[in-house]
């Protein structure tokens, strides 16, 4: 390892160098799926070194970059890029400015807003849209722009970095990090074994009566219900929703608030993406909050945050190379450490109190692009009076 | 719209000056034109779908919910705003100056911050509950739902009523009351027969702003888990049902028109008041303490609760992951820049509309004035999208520039400037500029040298009001700002959305401080009213 710049532990800001050598370390650690990447990257690193983005620390301990392709081995970025980001600045701002600072003549004009509002904005702007890349929190909003014919195909160098199930089959978008559906529960009120591992069993679980929460206007929740419609059918989904309402479910504005209410004991359990739990635990390590998973059903879908290149992009090469950078070892490590998401590039591990991506049991045969039919879900949610 | 009732205005020229009418019409058109996108977009939905959507039980329910919310908030705003205005103007309330400032200040707090902090303070397992837990109190009355939404919206919009009513009370001729009293009317009767008719237009104007605010606010009902109209629109946008959302927004515009009509009925006849003499002040006597208690309670609930919670968040520290949200002074500068530009632009655009409406009452002048209110009631996100379309299609050179952003703010907040200006024009005795004319001034000269100086306080007051509401605006800012341009509220939103509350505190405090300063201007300008 060419870690000439590395300081000793416990001293101010540690700077780790992620070089091609780190990639070798990742493979040694037994991570599959790197294939032929090793030889293309080991020698090309040259003198260029890339720091770990932000500090190496996470609230769950120190770590180094373990695998993936370094930024140093990706094509340089130069020029100006307008990025519409449906991911909040609090989460990805540091990553975005890292790339901007890393390249001398590369400028990013980021525009942060909710993913849905940006999709609406891009569609409203039509062919005059200044956006080059859309970076989003879920497959649904990416699919919506694809369906509207506003995307262009990503090159295979980008698509090949992640497993097939994490990018659009037609190559119009790629996932950049993963998010698992989970059940946050309060450990003062439940034992892990008491949480059903079948999502369809929840409405009939009396222990949850008037004591469980959800966020029905939240897009991840709607994606989860969309998955249920695909996997179980409309009728079963309708009954499930009805059952939950009869059980007495509390409504929240978003899933961060759901998870917080569970941590506070206001409710005993809820439905939320996995990282909200980690984010609360990062700030309050002693909170009586844990993550439960269901198995092989809509409650355990693994959705992605991802990116796409718009058909109005000024410089499509620059845009797709930028997306490629979001799949660099450094960016993937950043997602794991900072946003507590699942890295999608093999060899970069998740962090915190989480099972590895291979230990998750998402439903078989569910295509993420099927999750973009939110309209049907909203209609169903209305029919049963949830919305 | 029922405009016939409004017959008497201050005399002056009987025929409408053409130039003024054209200018006023142009402002109204500029406000309305981008909103035509709503109509176009809604037409794409198709009639049968549209009808199905609008008559769906949940839509009807949500419509009723919104109506109840608006009615209750408006009533509560009047119930708080009018007595407080009366106490601070017409009685010997101790520390009047202080209470005037204290009960005006809630206007500087954005309602979404109010809602979050109230939930944090009074929600289940909130700060208050935790404080009371040792005393064996383990649950508090439910804050969520209608009560919470009404409470928060009232606390942060009643100052509209307070401010407008105060101005009217200050400029009222109190000799009329004394006259009524000498005619053996009781205090209450004198109030009912003399004061109420005189302040009614001002109360109605303030209540209108509060009602339209309650109708268009998204944040508070969402946080309070109350199904108001704006929430359905939000859900539709979230499901990429843009056309449906705009259809619902049109329905919202229709409700706005109903409210505008109602307000013009209540506003009733207006007179030009030729500057008041207010000498007599009501002695509160033993009512002094309840009166102070009332003002103190309102100020404490509306100000101390959010400030306390904000400071708690600050004390809890800053999460490691929130580093990219480090505060930069330029955000405050940006906020002040766009807000000042908006205040100036809205005042200039408001002048012809307000002058025409105050001096030359006609169907047309009234139509122009009312038209400017529509942008105020459309939810920010809808107005934002309309201007995205307008800007990217027809005004590409200014799309995602500060010009379009300021234009959006003007559409949104013009009524506040117009309301204040109009009231000021009504207070200028029309014989004064006429006198100047007889002395050889041109109409423009008479306006510049006589009328304008007289309305200057109202002009600055209106501008300050626009300034501080622009400081707080969020949804249109998010959509229309130049990429990379950040203001205090976009920064607060970024931090808050991701749950990094601590990072939102410093910009929130700066926002409150700067807005507080502009509030002082609003209060100060009233000093001119009582010569």
Automatic annotation (TrEMBL), chain A:
Residues 42-51 have a biased composition (Low complexity). The keyword Metal-binding does not apply. Residues 34-62 are annotated as: Disordered. InterPro entries: Ferric-bd (IPR026045). The keyword Cell cycle does not apply. Keywords: Signal. Pfam families: SBP_bac_6. SUPFAM superfamilies: Periplasmic binding protein-like II. It comes from the Archaea. PANTHER family: SLL0237 PROTEIN, THIAMINE-BINDING PERIPLASMIC PROTEIN-RELATED. This is ABC-type iron(III) transport system,substrate-binding protein. It comes from Haloferax mediterranei (strain ATCC 33500 / DSM 1411 / JCM 8866 / NBRC 14739 / NCIMB 2177 / R-4).
UniProtKB/TrEMBL annotation, chain B:
The gene is sfuB. Keywords: Cell inner membrane, Cell membrane, Membrane, Transmembrane, Transmembrane helix, Transport. GO terms for biological process: transmembrane transport. Pfam families: BPD_transp_1. GO terms for cellular component: plasma membrane. The chain crosses the membrane at residues 20-39, 59-86, 98-123, 143-163, 202-224, 244-262, 292-315, 335-358, 370-391, 397-414, 450-471, 500-523. It is found in: Cell inner membrane; Cell membrane. Residues 63-263, 332-522 form the ABC transmembrane type-1 domain. Belongs to the binding-protein-dependent transport system permease family. This is ABC-type iron(III) transport system, permease protein. It is a multi-pass membrane protein. The keyword Transport applies.
